[in-house]
Amino acid sequence: ATTVAAGQLTVDGSIASAATIQSGARLTGSGRVGGLIINSGATVNPGNSPGTLSVDGNAVWNAGGNYDWESLAINTDETDQTAAGTGWDFMNISGTLTLGGLSSGSPFNLNLTSLSSSTSAGEIPDWDPNIGSTWLIARAASGIYLDSSLLGMNQNYSSFFNINTAGWSGGLPVGGFQVITLG
Q1: Nearest to residue 48, comparing CAs of 5, 11, 97?
Q2: Which of 126, 108, 125 is nearest to 116 (CA)?
Q3: What's the start-to-end Cα distance of the chain, in Å?
Q4: For residue 99, which of 56, 151, 47 has the smallest C-alpha distance?
Q5: Residue 142: which of 18, 68, 65, 55 has the closest Cα?
Q6: What are phi and psi of 45, to 5 degrees?
Q7: How far apart are CA 159 and CA 171, in angstroms?
Q8: What is the mean pLDDT of residues 120-133?
Q9: E strand or H helix at 182, and its extent?
Q10: I need a labelling partner for 115 at 20 to 30 A (CA). Which of 47, 76, 86, 160 fits?
Q11: pTM here?
């Protein structure tokens, strides 16, 4: 197992072992890890503005952890997620994704940043907050669990997430951002 206790680990190749990210530490890159645990105060930022981080095994997002998510593209068709990993950050998990200890009082943090180019924060080209967009931010081939309970499909789980929009430009979408399982 690999533990990141401080600083930043950028994985653009692969690490066969599982990576545990501790409070104050950060994992970035477009590579592969053998598993992933994001502890409270730790941060994951898939890709290299934007990109895909692949997890060959199970992932755990613990309460108080952070996912720094960046998008360069709008996506008005929820059934077409082919730009995941190129138009916006994406985490591809071959096993399960467990949301550990999340509740409305102990959420997981999604820190959203809009990009005007792959190197600059700013308003997404052609962004219109009045037209809905759906971005697939993570896929877990073996299901998404809240602790040991499998989450239902097409359900709104926004109450388990703190959606931080300080890095978002161009206005927030009508109805705000939501976290919904797609099925």
Answers
A1: 11
A2: 125
A3: 32
A4: 151
A5: 55
A6: -135, 90
A7: 21
A8: 94
A9: none
A10: 160
A11: 0.96
What are the pLDDT digits (tens) for 128-168?
999 989 999 999 999 999 999 999 999 999 999 999 999 99
Tokens of 19: 């990576």
* Tokens 């059934």, located at residue: 79
Q: Are 22 and 1 in contact (CB under 8 A)?
A: no
DSSP-derived secondary structure for 19-33: EEEPTT-EEEESSEE
What is the reported pLDDT for 54?
A: 98
Q: How far apart are CA 17 and CA 96, in angstroms?
A: 16
Long-range CB contacts (within 8 A, 24+) of 128-132: 128/74, 129/170, 129/171, 129/172, 129/173, 129/174, 130/173, 130/174, 131/74, 131/76, 132/76, 132/173, 132/174, 132/175
Q: Name the residue among 45, 39, 29 with its Cα closest to residue 111.
A: 45
162 pairs with which residues across the strands? 109
**What does the block give as tokens for 65?**
């952890």
Q: Is 29 exposed, middle or buried (0-12, 13-18, 19+ CB in 10 A)?
A: buried
